[in-house]
Amino acid sequence: MHDQPRMKTYAMSDFYADLRSARPPVDGTVARGQLHEDTYFYTGKIGANPGDYMPFPVTEDVVARGRERFNIYCAPCHSRVGDGNGMIVKRGYKQPPTYHQDRLRKAPLGYFFDVMTNGFGAMPDYAAQIPPRDRWCIVAYIRALQLSQNATQAEVGGQQVPSAPAQFEEPGSGATLPTLLPESTGEEKK
Ligand code: HEC
Fold this sequence. Notes:
Cytochrome Bc1 Complex, Chain D, domain 2; elongated
């Protein structure tokens, strides 16, 4: 077969004025799969302001995924309920504000997306660790957390608010999660 003429990688060439054989991509080139046409999905913003809707429907799976990702990436600082008392904070990191204050309860959904995407003050961004769709799942879960911490008795079907503290079996060695005592029915047989 014919030996095709070609340049070795990064070899010099006097064909172009800059003497480079490897050509830089044309201005405005978009790599395959990198066309972020849906600006809201990737920024949480409409123009310069955060928007207040989810870019896809929130199903139970979405909230479950958000909860899982939140507990991995956010809870170490923000705590599992989002009050800002995470373990990292106990070890001296700046304490974040609680999500259960008025300002953040009223903050639009896109705002939370933006904080994760670009960071906020002392908080680093999580754009590299958490893909956009998962960031939205976390947004949905944060809103659920906020509702859960401000529910009225009517909203939870007459259940006591705040709910009674959980009762645990004797804590084990610490190597396993403590088990909840079975709920008392009021008519204990023993
Ligand atoms: C390493 C600790 C840490 C982690 C992990 C972390 N945060 Fe934060 N977060 C902070 C701190 C500290 C602040 C307050 C920053 C400041 O005021 O300078 C903050 C602030 C915030 C705020 C409030 C911004 C405001 O307007 O006051 C939101 C919302 C937030 N974080 C969301 C998240 C989410 C969502 C995650 C998980 C993807 C996350 N954070 C992970 C430390 C953390």
